[in-house]
């Protein structure tokens, strides 16, 4: 199977960088285009007006956006060095929904993402973005699992 367009959602965790490494190697083999995605999560329980009047919240989101842009720039440079066509996107909202939405938007035919490997109560409370994407995605999803040492 050969892939044409790979979507790689990232955060600032080591497992995201493991997913990037896998995507880089697979993109070289398939000569695929890659889109790197960073999702800036927005709390759905807080009203928009609150963000406008709460400078600390606004500052937090501005900082998150700046960090996402810097991270995406650094990652895209590694693909550029390998002459792999790469794009980057930032999505604001729910991570799993954003990943599915952007995969459809860019015409991805594979998603490669890391899984933090949460289990039990942590998974129940925090949810699992990877699990949500796996259950909702109409395209293949490669999950790079957290390696415990």
Automatic annotation (TrEMBL):
Residues 3-145 form the UspA domain. The keyword Transport does not apply. Its main location: cytoplasm. Keywords: Cytoplasm. GO terms for cellular component: cytoplasm. It holds the Pfam family Usp. It is found in: Cytoplasm. Belongs to the universal stress protein A family. PANTHER family: STRESS RESPONSE PROTEIN NHAX, UNIVERSAL STRESS PROTEIN UP12. This is Universal stress protein. It comes from Acinetobacter marinus. The lineage of its organism: Bacteria, Pseudomonadati, Pseudomonadota, Gammaproteobacteria, Moraxellales.
């Amino acid at each position: 199977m050969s892939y044409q367009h790979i979507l790689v959602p990232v955060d600032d965790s080591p497992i995201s960088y493991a997913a990037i490494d896998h995507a880089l190697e697979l993109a070289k083999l398939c000569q695929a285009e890659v889109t790197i995605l960073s999702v800036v999560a927005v709390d759905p329980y807080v009203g928009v007006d609150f963000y406008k009047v709460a400078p600390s919240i606004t500052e937090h989101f501005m900082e998150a956006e700046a960090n996402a842009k810097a991270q995406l720039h650094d990652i895209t440079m590694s693909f550029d060095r390998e002459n792999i066509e790469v794009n980057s996107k930032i999505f604001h909202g729910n991570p799993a929904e954003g990943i599915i939405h952007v995969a459809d938007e860019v015409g991805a035919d594979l998603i490669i993402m890391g899984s933090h490997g949460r289990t039990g109560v942590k998974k129940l409370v925090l949810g699992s973005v990877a699990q949500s994407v796996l259950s909702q995605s109409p395209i293949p999803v490669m999950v790079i699992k957290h390696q415990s040492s």
